[in-house]
Amino acid sequence: MKLKLLTLGLFLCFCTAQSQEYFPKNDGVKSRNTNYTVFKNAKIHLDAKNVLEKGMFAIREGRITAVAKSINIPKNSIVIDLEGKEVYPSFIDLYTDFGIPKPKRAENGNGPQYDAGREGYYWNDHIRPDTEAIAEFSFDSKEAEKLHKAGFGVVNTHVPDGIVRGTGMLVALTPEVSEGDRILDERSSQYLSFEKSVKSRQSYPTSTMGTMALLRQAYLDAEWYARGNAKNKDLALEALNKNKNLVQIFATDNLLNEFRADKVGDEFGIQYVIVGSGNEYQRINEVKASNATYIVPLKFPDAFDVEDPYLANLLSLEEMREWNQAPANLKVLSENKVPFALTTNSIDPEKDFRTNLLKAVEYGLTKEAALAALTTIPAKTIGKEGKLGVIQEGAWANFLITSGDYFEKETTLYENWIQGEKKVLNSMDVTNITGNYDLKIDNNTYSLNISGEPSSPKTDVKLGETKIGSKISFNDNWMNLLLSSPDTTKTEFIRLVANIPSKTDTFSGKAILPDGKETRFQAVRKESTDKDKKDKKKKEDKTRSIVAVTYPNVAYGFKNQPEQQNVLFKNATVWTSEETGVLENTDVLVKNGEIVNVGQGLSAGGARVIDATGKHLTAGIIDEHSHIAASAINESGHNSSAEVTMEDVVDPTDINIYRNLAGGVTTIQLLHGSANPIGGRSAILKLKWGESADDMIFEQAPPFIKFALGENVKQSNWSGSRFPQTRMGVEQVFTDYFSRGRAYENSRNEENFRKDLEMETIVEILNGERFVTSHSYIQSEINMLMKVAEKFGFNINTFTHILEGYKVADKMKEHGVGASTFSDWWAYKYEVNDAIPYNAAIMNEVGLTVAINSDDGEMSRRLNQEAAKSVKYGGMSEEEAWKMVTINPAKLLHIDKLTGSIREGKQADLVLWNEHPLSIYAKPEKTMVDGVIYFDLERDSQMRADIRKERNELIGQMLKAKNNGVKTQPVIKKEEQRVHCDLLEEVK
Amino acid sequence: MKTIHTYIIVALLIISGNSFAQQTPAGKQEGPVTIVGATAHLGNGEVIENSLIIFEDGKLIEVIDASLTKRQYPGKIINAKGKHVYPGFIAPNSTLGLVEIDAVKATVDQDEMGEMLPNIRSLIAYNAESKIVESMRPNGVLLGQIVPRGGRISGTSSIVQFDAWNWEDAVIKENDGLHINWPDFYRRGRWWRGEDPDLKANKEYQENVQNLSDFFAASKAYLDGNRDYKNLPYLAMEQVFSGDKKVYVHVDGEKEILDVIQFKKEHALSDVVIVGGYYALDVADALKKNDIPVLVNRPHSTPEQAYEDYDYPYKLANLLHEAGVLVAIESSGQMERMNTRNIPFYAGTVAAFGMNKEDALKLITLNTAKILGIDENYGSLEEGKSATLFISEGDALDMRGNILSHAFIDGREISLATHQTELWKRYSKKYEEQEGE
């Protein structure tokens, strides 16, 4: 394929300037151009930092041969005088699909496809390291022209399809040469992404966490394959190994995925170059800590059309902020010394690139940093330091000639030289005749306006207030101007001709009047009027004041992250969730994030005193079953997804974190959904609003995994085609996996042992090193799972939902499993027909550890009410009921030594309530996690006022922008999905 | 505390000593009943601490302070000292009895195909023996408006009580309201047509409103004619124009609500009720001026927008009330049927976020009855009204207090047992016996 393409290139480009020396030639004699071209008197930007004023440089056969203040001019030289002009290295774009046809989408089929469609390759079609850009590449001169105009000389291109996308190639955008000359490196890099291949319908992975798990497994498998352990041929793994030492470029489309990519890379000792989202400023410290080089799009959101206030109400604060803040992204990256290159991907290089770049400069990006991002940094990133992106001896002769400072709006790009080949963008010799003139012909004075590019000007002519038809052409500095006769009743023309060799304020020439009479005309330049200035101002998106970034950068984010405080809660009614019960008039002292003393009359010792008289202090609520703060819930592509972990997809920007804090929740178990019998691993989080995803993870908590039984896993409520379809099959899935898990463990010492992330998790479960929380409804399946576990010698830790737990509570007690249930949900599916609100009370009475959970972002913020329902349904005591949302879920999660009650030495996860916490009238006033007050009713009311003010300001800015004529986009409200585990589709 | 509850449980078990799958409806009230000593929450904002409540033939004949009279207590006397009496709670805009199990299509009868369906009537599909309906009663929810869903005009609702053999016995007001799903000014992309699922401006909004307006005009014209041809949808509009069928408009947006007010004027509609009304607060003055009440969606919801106050749904009913709008709470939404029994706690939550408790009670009693047009008989404990009430151990708006010992509908003492209490008994007994072994 590659060879064929090169041959094709040869036929198309037989007239190349640099034809290959060993190629036969049949259309004439062999002639090689060995002349030098020498440029003199230019302001030369040697690289992003250094400038040579009035310098000289020479090029020959595509390379720069010398650069200096003064060089010897060889005799066989053509000398070009660049007096008053500037020279820059041509730009480099590392993230393009230049010259690659759009990947063809697989045809729709019936139902999901679970197996790979390719044979001889990896088991998953979305791992395509065997793809080679070179095999699909053909030079796209139309696109190249756009890139030339933007100033680019070299691009790296790839096939944008799949999770591992195979090799990219580095290609010069040299016009009129053969592919053989243009290709600088046909295996320059390997590309990756979070997007599945469109060429395959294979289901797995359906989620971001599945993608990450797949990538990890593929790396492990490649290593195993490299050791010669496979019996089969796997061309994908071979390619992955072959590409291992290339630059790895990981494409992402949102900030969280940037961190996720980096995390996978770190685990395998790979530093990806990350294609960012343009939102890096929102978490710049983490971006910096990734140590990655970034490739950043030059795309800024358009202002929203907020003229209709009803529609404006749909806009989220973060979208409004992104519009306001994004243009400063590059400045922030640069100030924080994050190395970055720029890409034209996702914008039109011809129309938008320079405009957006200048906008970034206007917003504080230094010219030096901008130039580095287009030249030296991408060159270094792709391993071509000193060869590309610089003007120095030995480098490719890739450079731009401009009329002045590239970063000034008025500057014209004249020529883009690539590999020593000239591409004229605007003729250097064209006289700029644009402007306003008084045009005198035959006793009439017309008003003449010439605008547009100097080489293709446009005219606007008036006589008094009457518009006169006109047409101008300007070639080789000869102007031909055709005017309609001022007598509009006639179809007659006046023709003007003039030679204008240099910029001037007056020019004159010959005019031929409608009657054939020849006369002279004269044009005299006018001072530009106020109106012109005003016109010019129009359509410019003026620099606006940037609003502060908050953590997270959404409504109710913190401008300054609240800090740990030493606090003395004075004179509270303290619900200990311990044997000590409820203590009246009691003080609780918090120091360094821990509860250090519980008693009466405690001295503050410098701690902040909070008067809690008449108020109730409790441990923070723990929600054993939550799906908030997640970018994905289900990996449903396989019937087991033990390899995936919710820790990979924590979304710290979810407003439900803040709302949960406002409901007194401090810790949650973020569970995988219930799409498959063996789900994914959990993330146990502390709701530290404003912190990063990783910092929310409750580190001391032991590992968990979600299992699921019943209607969801057997795909009862939609048409499914995956095993199992019955509860009988569900049992077999477990038995099969556990048997294989045991066998896997026993094979560890075998020579060709293959590390399998899914099986590693199963082994942890079998060995009691990872606890199981199983979604369950009816008694038969509950019993089944306990029996299967017992057969394999381990215990189920928790049944969640467990709506028929009351029917088998005795058996559960015998097994030693806990229960985490809803207070009163039922009737939504057939399997909850016998669900009763007395369930928790009965199980508690039998002696199980029982928790009340939410599985719902709404209910989770009032779990105190849900716990109180057990007082109504089943007559549980209030103390016992309160334990069901504090110490009991802590026990189920094995974090009860750390949190879940008020006792000396425990983590200070506390809630101060205005009322009895089980009362319907109770609301949290302060919620503290690890000694930091993350929710405070007073601060909340201040934030509300601030948000109103900020929205108002941003709407004002957008209205102003629209008024100035900038492009706007219609308001669209992004759907926020409230997730619970019955939800199967993937969310952000 | 625990022992008290044990007594309550035992008491409950005795009262509900009945083991049919569905509870047998109670017969007509046979002699007078006197409830004495309870704190009576009248539902109209008033409280009588030590009350005397007497009812006969289904009607309240005395609701007074017990210390003000020395009269003989007639009939069956219930000493309710330390307890609380409430009028039966009312669930408007409900689909109870129309769906049994959400995921089982065969049990779902709430949404007929078609757009303009005033002739579709919820009442005839209402399953008086639904296990979900009976589960309302132990929480004090005794009445409901049964409403069809879907389409532009979903159909006609009826109001029922929750202790009946069949729909005919259950109905207390037939064909009380017409239900319109107002077009959305913005709408979700139709993902099934490959559009983005996000919300954006609905280009067809004006056209949708016009279609609705045209339908009203066409119905009116038809009804003014000789009606030789029996056009069922148009005929079902007759009571709308005569003022006998209220018009319930399910709508949330500010602009849309203003358009509804205009629609009311245009078609000279006497009674219009806003259902949902998420952004009604911004147009509260106009609603008040035009006598349009609001059935606010359940407070146990999350705010529509991240930037909104976290407690906005909690306090919306109160804010509307403070602005002078007549407000009640409805409970539609996800898992709405089984959740309707939580309507007292919806009211309690509104009280937690600023409303006076007795005003909060009105949101599920007298205000609801007024809005539904059944306040002559229901919604408050007042002489001459139906004896539809219950006795609770404590504050019925609080989970811990909402424990019923007696409940009456039209003076009939109804069973408080349900499929769920029976399972509770059955399995509690299983473990008690195990312990005894």
From TrEMBL, chain A:
Annotated protein name in UniProt: Amidohydrolase family protein
Signal peptide (from-to): 1-19
Keywords carried by this UniProt record: Hydrolase, Signal
Domain Amidohydrolase: start-end pairs: 251-412
Gene3D superfamilies noted in UniProt: Metal-dependent hydrolases (3.20.20.140), Urease, subunit C, domain 1 (2.30.40.10)
An example molecular function term from Gene Ontology annotations: hydrolase activity, acting on carbon-nitrogen (but not peptide) bonds
Annotated Amidohydrolase-related domain residues: 842-931
Source organism phylogeny: Bacteria, Pseudomonadati, Bacteroidota, Flavobacteriia, Flavobacteriales
Organism: Christiangramia sabulilitoris
InterPro entries in alphabetical order: Amidohydro-rel (IPR006680), Amidohydro_3 (IPR013108), Metal-dep_hydrolase_composite (IPR011059), Metal_Hydrolase (IPR032466), Metallo-dep_Hydrolase (IPR051781)
SUPFAM superfamilies linked to this entry: Composite domain of metallo-dependent hydrolases (SSF51338), Metallo-dependent hydrolases (SSF51556)
Domain of life: Bacteria
TrEMBL record, chain B:
Ranges for domain Amidohydrolase-related: 316-395
Source taxon at top rank: Bacteria
Keywords associated with the record: Hydrolase, Signal
Protein name: Amidohydrolase family protein
Coiled-coil ranges from the UniProt annotation: none
Database matches in Pfam families: Amidohydro_1
Organism whose genome encodes this protein: Christiangramia sabulilitoris
Keyword rRNA-binding annotated: no
The keyword Hydrolase belongs to this UniProt entry's keyword annotation: yes
Example of a GO MF term: hydrolase activity, acting on carbon-nitrogen (but not peptide) bonds
Signal peptide: 1-21
